[in-house]
Amino acid sequence: MSEPMIRLSHVTKTFPGQSTPAVDDLSFDIAEGEIVVLVGPSGCGKTTTLKMINRLVEATGGTIEVAGTEITSVEAPILRQGIGYVIQRIGLFPHRTIGENIATVPGLLGWDKGRIKDRVTELIELVGLEQEMKDRYPSELSGGQQQRVGVARALAADPPVLLMDEPFGAVDPIVRSRLQDELLDLQQRVRKTIVFVTHDIDEAIKLGDRVAILNVGGVLEQYASPAETLSDPANSFVEEFLGEDRSLKRLSLTPIGSVELAPGPVVGPDATRSEVDAAMAQHGVDWVGVRTGPQLDGWVWGKDVTDTAGGATPKRFSVWLTPEQSLKEALDSVVSSHTGVAVIFDDESYLGMLSIEQISRHLLE
Amino acid sequence: MIAQTNDSFVRWDWIWSHLDLVWEKVVEHLILTGIALGVGLAISLVLSAVILRWRPAYTPITWVTGIAYSIPSLALFAFLVPITGFTILTAEIGLVSYTLLILIRNVVAGIDGVDPAVKEAALGMGYTRRRLFFQIELPLALPVIIAGLRIAGVTTIGLVTVTALIGQGGVGFFILRGLNRFFSTEIVLGTMLSVILAVALDLALLGVERVLTPWSGRRGSAT
Question: How far apart are CA A183 and CA A168, in angstroms?
Answer without folding.
Answer: 10
